[in-house]
Amino acid sequence: MEKRYDVIVVGGGHAGCEAALAASRRGAGTLLVTLKKEAIGYTSCNPSIGGVGKGQLVKEIDALGGEMAKAADASAIQFRMLNSSKGYAARSSRAQIDRRLYNFYMRECLAAREDLDIFEDEVKEVLVASGACEGVRTGGGHIFRAPNVVLTPGTFMNGVMHIGLEHFSGGRMGENASAGLSENLSSLGFRVGSLKTGTPARLDGRTIDFSVLERQAGDEHIIPFSFSTGGITLPQRPCYITRTNEETHRVIREGLDRSPLYTGKIRSTGVRYCPSIEDKVVKFPQRDSHVVFLEPEGLDTDEYYPNGISTSLPVDVQERMVRSIRGLENVKINKPAYGIEYDFVDPTHLFPTLETKTVRGLFMAGQINGTTGYEEAAALGLMAGINASAKVRGEEAVVLERSQAYTGVLIDDLVTKGTKEPYRMFTSRVEYRILVREDNADTRLAGIGRGLGLAAEDALERVLRKKERVEKEKKRLAAVMVPSEKASLAQLLKRPGISYDDIAEMEDKGTGLSYYEKVQLEVDIKYKGYIERELAKIKKFSDLEKIRIPAGFDYSGVPGLSNEIKEKLAFLRPRSLGQASRVSGVTPAAISILMIKLRANGGRRRKKG
């Protein structure tokens, strides 16, 4: 069996879904090859979307025309705005989702596309000729031809699962790992390494004593993820909070002699910011407890996800550990926790377009790039799908700047600096976060999404209306004086602790603005000076970003650069002087030398857009 396509996407996780949808929606004949059709879009770890730094990615995916935000809204059973007491730059949306409904929504979304074929098989090999991608070969003996392939294998590439001292091949519980592809990539010249992640046990909610636990409800005023969602219709469910204790920690310490983490069975680097419970107990011995969030898995199931106690300890230790926690004394474990090691490819093999430097037409997205999290994977998948389809259409690739989007920071960090541990997005990674926020993702990116043919027709109209309403209200606030304060309403709004809602209450009238409009108004007025300084910084650094480094530029012929810098730049092949400046070990002096050399050679500036 042999068939030709424009784009082949390998893997049906969050990255694969966004890549396949983006490519097919942009007119590319697309094939999605996945191990199991029923698992397309499955949330294999926690039943939630968003979080600190991640909610921003979901909003950006939506603004660009991706699907994750809509899928989350269609399956959400609790919404919470995290960091709501902090400034708008730090606020991030998070939603508990019904795992089954999210999976169903995404499967139906892909199945509904007539120009997207879905084939169930395992890809064993990327076919390459003369340094260019030609297609894939599957374990079933099928060959599919395409000049562009997007690899999104998640944790399945040579996945090994660990429960205590037992280990077995698998991509996640109940599903086989992918074998052969990792070796194929190594033979093509890619540096392949391994990383580790894990998940907690799943608990039977009918055996949990909720009466002794702290109840955590969601927000009353819900802000959906998608800018186009009118409202949330599903019933909302609370989470519950409990904590580990000294007995829990004693059980864990006694079980360390059978822990794959502490007996050397697991050698890969795990997620720094989401460690297993045994790592927490060992590395933070001064802590007498750790928080556990009990999260519902859906509306039609009694299963709960105990966020905070991910582990790879033996099942009998898991049972004693969990039952030592308040409210879980008689709990039944439906599925045990496990750790998983899987292969990934050094992301410095990638251009910022997510196309590989080693094989033309081969793109990589998701955990194969060294990331962790549904949201990071989906953002990467969307951009890979966009740029694979751009090659089909003969268009210029889309590269988002660091000053433009969290997605731009995510990709630039990976392809410029690489990673030795699973990469997770945080607000702290973003230099210009007061300008790059959740609430203005549509303002920043809807124009790009619409230009690509992915965002809805009315997306730009919504952005324009928002801008007009905000500007009109800003002018009104500046014109209305408060005699008792000898200040305008706009000047009052600048004061700490004063919100736009406070101003509306003072005037004894409704605000008339949407949530997004109110946030934009407050940010514009309260942080005007700071924003102007940030924009000046962006302009200054954008000059470096505009200076393009020609493909095949010979660094060996640049006098004044150290051999180490020459080797790094020759391998990384940065697209611009700005990207080169962010490479570890490349000094400001080296950038000055490069700038002089490029200008002497007639270095070209990148076109806008």
Secondary structure layout:
Elements lengths: L1 E3 L2 E4 L3 H12 L4 E5 L13 E3 L3 H11 L3 H8 E7 L9 E6 L1 H13 L4 E5 L2 E7 L2 E7 L4 E3 L2 E4 L8 E4 L2 E4 L11 H7 L4 E8 L2 E3 L9 E3 L22 E5 L2 H9 L22 H7 L7 E6 L6 E5 L7 H9 L9 E3 L2 E8 L16 E3 L9 H20 L12 H12 L23 H11 L7 H21 L1 E2 L4 E2 H5 L6 H7 L8 H12 L1 H19 L16 H10 L4 H5 L6 H13 L9
Parallel strand pairs: 1-10, 2-3, 2-11, 3-7, 11-22
Antiparallel strand pairs: 4-6, 5-6, 8-9, 9-10, 12-13, 12-21, 14-21, 15-19, 15-20, 16-17, 17-18, 18-19, 23-24
For the structure shown, list the relevant keywords.
4 domains; six-stranded antiparallel sheet; FAD/NAD(P)-binding domain; Elongation Factor Tu (Ef-tu), domain 3; 24 strands; globular; disordered C terminus; 609 residues; 18% strand; single chain; five-stranded parallel sheet; Arc Repressor Mutant, subunit A; alpha+beta
Overview of the molecule:
The protein is an alpha+beta fold and 609 residues long. The protein folds into four domains: 2-199 and 342-451, 3-Layer(bba) Sandwich (FAD/NAD(P)-binding domain), CATH 3.50.50; 202-338, Elongation Factor Tu (Ef-tu), domain 3, CATH 2.40.30; 459-531, Arc Repressor Mutant, subunit A, CATH 1.10.10.1800; 547-600, DNA polymerase, domain 1. 35% of the residues lie in helices and 18% in strands. The chain is built from 19 helices and 24 strands. The chain has a six-stranded antiparallel sheet, with no helix packed on it. Strands 7-3-2-11-22 form a five-stranded parallel sheet, covered by helices on one side. A four-stranded mixed sheet has the order 1-10-9-8. The chain is globular, with a radius of gyration of 25 Å. The model is unreliable at 603-609 (pLDDT under 50).
